Fold this sequence. Notes:
By secondary structure, this protein is mostly beta strands. The protein has a single domain (16-100), classed as SH3 type barrels (Roll). It has 1 helix and 5 strands. Strands 4-3-2-1-5 form a 5-stranded antiparallel β-sheet. A hairpin with a 4-residue loop joins strand 3 (74-82) and strand 4. The two termini are 21 Å apart.
Amino acid sequence: MSNQELIQSSTRNLNPEISNTLNSLTKGQRIRVTLKLRVGSTATWMAPVEGIFRHFNFLSTGIATDRIPEDDIVVVCVHFTKDNGELSSFTVDDHTKIEKL
């Protein structure tokens, strides 16, 4: 995948900046991810975490009702290893910030 290709899913395209960053990452590269966390309807904060990039792929989310395949919600899922050795992953949304270190 070249750096010019936007990452697409069946749901929607990623922000071009995030797409370019993900396309330029290599396995073993150190990254800092900042995610927007939300509790309830009003409490939000930005939470950074650092680790080693492993790969990204697509996650087809589970829906509680039987739906046609065209209605699946597909999101980009980034997999990385935290400094304490924990294997972790997150799904990318409009508030996600990924930096190469």
